């Protein structure tokens, strides 16, 4: 196994790609020299200690193309999420391949749904459940991705909260495990001010900082997973992937 510094240097390359979970359309990959901000981001990651209790992971979608999950596993990645669905009808074109190959590589796998206000929470929950079918012991809890791209047009805040809570409640009831909420600080502090959301573990996205800030709703609970860079490359995959770290021992998040 590589030590932590070697791992971080091996995963960061001079490339940039739109965050994969924000769109279902393809985005071109541009080869760029690292900016000053990206250089600082790399330095921040290199100086951030990884405690023994923490685990390293990645999240992917069709943007990454074919992934060699055995190589991913060999690079000390112990958990991974793949995009499953978006809205009421979309299924990520690489979901089924990633889902089966993650299991074969003995990586703790999880699936996420990108929420859209274009359809109700009930319909989206059923779409997600019908796609992933079931979850098993040792896997990661399902994730609901809530961010700026989720809001289409205008929607009353209380209605948005009811629809999101409907998704969370239905998925928990049907799959038997409480989902995780993925979001970022700007979105959470504008759209997720509701104490009921704090009942769900938080996966926070924040890049280029030494420590992630916690949104107001989760201020007393903190985050469980931190997506700390959206630009990185490791052996075994083609496109850039998001890199994640847990705040607790991995087994405490895995489905029992």
CATH class: Alpha Beta
- Please give the order of strands in the largest beta sheet: 3-4-6-7-8-9-10-11
Q: Separation of termini?
A: 27 Å
The ordered string of helix (H) and strand (E) elements is: HEEHEHEEHEHEHEHEEE
List the helices and strands and how they pair.
Layout (H helix, E strand, L loop, with lengths): L3 H8 L3 E2 L13 E2 L4 H12 L8 E5 L8 H6 L4 E8 L3 E2 L3 H10 L3 E7 L6 H12 L10 E3 L11 H19 L4 E5 H7 L10 E4 L19 E5 L12 E5 L10
Parallel strand pairs: 3-4, 4-6, 6-7, 7-8, 8-9, 9-10
Antiparallel strand pairs: 1-2, 3-11, 4-5, 10-11
GO molecular function, one term: lysozyme activity
Family: Belongs to the glycosyl hydrolase 25 family.
Pfam family, one: Glyco_hydro_25
């Amino acid at each position: 196994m590589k030590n932590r510094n070697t791992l971080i240097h091996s995963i960061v390359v001079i490339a940039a790609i739109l965050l994969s979970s924000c769109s279902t359309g393809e985005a071109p990959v541009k080869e760029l020299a690292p900016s000053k901000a990206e250089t600082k981001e790399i330095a921040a990651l290199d100086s951030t200690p990884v405690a023994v209790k923490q685990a390293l992971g990645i999240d992917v979608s069709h943007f990454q193309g074919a992934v060699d999950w055995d190589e991913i596993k060999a690079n000390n990645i112990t958990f991974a999420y793949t995009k499953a669905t978006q809205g009421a009808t979309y299924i990520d074109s690489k979901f089924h391949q990633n889902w089966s190959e993650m299991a074969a590589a003995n990586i703790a796998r999880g699936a996420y749904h990108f929420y859209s206000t274009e359809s109700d929470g009930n319909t989206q929950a059923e779409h997600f459940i019908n796609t992933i079918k079931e979850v098993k012991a040792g896997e990661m809890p399902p994730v609901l991705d809530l961010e700026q791209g989720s809001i289409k047009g205008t929607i009353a805040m209380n209605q948005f909260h009811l629809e999101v809570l409907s998704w969370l409640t239905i998925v928990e009831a049907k799959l038997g495990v409480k989902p995780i909420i993925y979001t970022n600080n700007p979105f959470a502090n504008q759209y997720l001010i509701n104490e009921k959301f704090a009942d769900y573990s938080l996966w926070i996205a924040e890049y280029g900082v030494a420590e992630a800030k916690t949104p107001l709703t989760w201020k007393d609970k903190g985050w469980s997973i931190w997506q700390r860079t959206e630009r990185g490359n490791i052996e075994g995959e083609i496109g850039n992937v998001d890199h994640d770290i847990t705040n607790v021992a991995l087994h405490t998040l895995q489905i029992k």
